[in-house]
Design goal:
Elements: H1 2-25, E1 41-47, E2 50-59, E3 69-73, H2 84-91, E4 96-100, H3 117-130, E5 136-141, H4 143-154, E6 159-165, H5 182-189, H6 194-204, H7 214-222, H8 229-245, E7 259-264, H9 278-281, H10 287-297, E8 302-306, H11 313-316, H12 318-328
Parallel strand pairs: 3-4, 3-5, 5-6, 6-7, 7-8
Antiparallel strand pairs: 1-2, 2-4
Helix pairs in contact: 3-4, 5-8, 6-7
């Protein structure tokens, strides 16, 4: 009897420990309990009858200001928090740096709206207008590369340079990735766990996994413990549909601003990769080829390629990336 009670007590203790561990790891879906490295402000946005908040950081140069600004657009699975080293490198060289969390991401509102790269570009233009910035260098990573491209197409007079770091959308995913509805994708997103996030990051983003990358996993995986995670998952599905249905690949020829591509050659990112067979995966998402093809489409574009690097050069090879970025600016 005593052994049985002891066993029950131990099981209860383990369950309680797990619950506390999960509670400790839990993040709100607007990342209130994630500390950004610089003060966060909020830009008001009204759309579809909803009053929303767009989070952003506006960081002044730490050395003699050069009068120039760089805007950083994050990728789909990230927010402004992963730009720390880039911000430091730029501000130390005299640049003002503006880092928005797009609506639906990071600390910004998680709204049920029609997600559109055109609308996002317009919100970012309005933010720059409010901050008194008439011209800026636009650096976009991953999904942020699609947004940066759309921004440069809509506002060439505002875009000093277009800087694309392993942007997605270099292929039209509709041509080879099977269509899934937003509702179907929502069911897939609901299955996300911190373990599945870690596995995806290890297999998709980096050539060699390092312990420091766990901080990225903790943010993306921490929200899965939140009671509001279904809302977060729905937004993730809606923005997946945005990427799938709103390609920019056919408009690279129309870009009229100086453009530089920064390409980790080992990147194999495909939006909807899990919907493809291994044979299909092997012939798409080849950034060592796609980078050159894209540079050839953009008038006067330059390309800087990184060997032994995957989807996020600014994290995987921070020194090499920042040297290339500063040289391009």
């Amino acid at each position: 009897m005593f052994k049985k009670l002891l066993r029950v007590a131990l099981v209860s203790l383990c369950t309680l420990s797990t619950a506390f561990a999960q509670k400790a790891d839990t993040l709100s879906i607007t990342l209130e309990n994630v500390k950004y490295d610089y003060p966060v402000k909020f830009f008001p946005v009204t759309t579809e009858g909803q009053d929303l908040r767009m989070a952003y950081m506006d960081i002044a140069p730490t050395q003699l200001a050069n009068g120039r600004t760089v805007v950083l657009f994050h990728g789909k699975n990230f927010g402004g928090y992963y730009w720390k080293d880039v911000i430091k490198a730029l501000t130390s060289r005299g640049f003002r740096v503006v880092v928005p969390d797009q609506i639906g991401f990071g600390k910004s509102s998680k709204a049920f709206i029609h997600y559109s790269f055109h609308q996002m570009a317009r919100w970012n233009k309005a933010l720059l207008d409010t901050l008194g910035i008439k011209k800026a260098n636009i650096l976009g990573h991953s999904m942020g590369g699609m947004l940066a491209t759309r921004f440069a197409l809509m506002y060439p007079e505002v875009t000093e340079k277009l800087l694309l770091e392993n942007p997605i959308g270099l292929e039209d995913y509709r041509n080879f990735v099977p269509y899934v509805s937003t509702e179907q994708q929502y069911k897939t997103e609901l299955k996300s766990t911190i373990e599945s996030v870690r596995k995806y990051y290890q297999s998709s983003y980096f050539t060699v996994w390092k312990p420091e990358y766990e901080t990225l996993v903790n943010v993306a995986g921490g929200v899965t413990f939140s009671a509001d995670f279904p809302r977060y998952a729905k937004i993730a599905a809606m923005t997946f549909t945005m990427i799938y249905e709103q390609p920019v690949v056919y408009e690279f020829y129309n870009i009229k601003v100086p453009t530089v591509l920064f390409i980790g050659k080992q990147d194999r990112t495909i939006v909807g990769k899990g919907l493809l067979t291994p044979d299909q995966q092997a012939i798409h998402g080849l950034y060592n080829i796609l980078g050159k093809q894209t540079a050839a489409k953009i008038p006067g574009a330059k390309i800087i390629e990184f060997e032994g690097c995957g989807h996020i050069p600014h994290i995987e090879i921070p020194t090499e990336f920042t040297v290339a970025l500063l040289g391009s600016l």
